[in-house]
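Issue 218. Parser rejects a valid record. Input:
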Amino acid sequence: MGRLAHWALGEDGLSLYVIPRGDYLPGERVKVTVRFTDGAAPASASFWLVGHAAKGTRRVYVFRQPRPPDVCEKERDEAQAEARQCQEDKARLLAEREEPGGLMGVAWLEGAGVVASSSIRLEVTKPPANALRLDDAWSYSYTPTGESRPASVAVRLGLSNPGTEPWTLAGAALVDSTGEQVELTRWPKAPIPAKGAGAVVVGIEGERAQLGCPCTLKLWEAQGPRTVTLENVTFPEGKAKGP
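Output the parser choked on:
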């Protein structure tokens, strides 16, 4: 910001006189730290000098009331705990906001009483080369009142990753009995950890949801050959239950 032209230390104050550089930019910051020698806490105080093209403050008053170190440590611990709680609450709210809508959201929340649902874990066939183990599988369909064909279908899978690297779902597709393939929306996008487990939901809405099943479900990751294929995937018939 500039060069320090003059400073003076008194019994109860510190005076600084700074000459700005000719090329300084507004918003540039310089940190000044003052250390106290009386052995009480807090032991120091830091200030930021911020450059401004037109405004300046000639005098800043800071009052220090020395306190025992254990009191300061207690306040520090409480502030850190509050900050951690805020971060956890923020992460939870963001996760809730990013949950999928429509049928996929219902499938993620396992709302079997809201849409037609069926456990298909014992029905599907799994090639031995699959990168992940299948722990659970549910299929869902939603047919609006007055219609005979589903408007939405979704699959919720519980998967285990036996590998030594995380597995991240990058894409999913359904291939119906006629060979037609449609890509699916997927959620969540967080990886399934190595030697761990996780769940994914894939689905589709609109006319493309009216597939001729049984279908083949394909899942793949962004990089590498590790894929998951499930054959004989079916969707239940029925309408959403009313309240």
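Fixed in the parser; the record now loads. The chain is about 15% helix and 35% strand.
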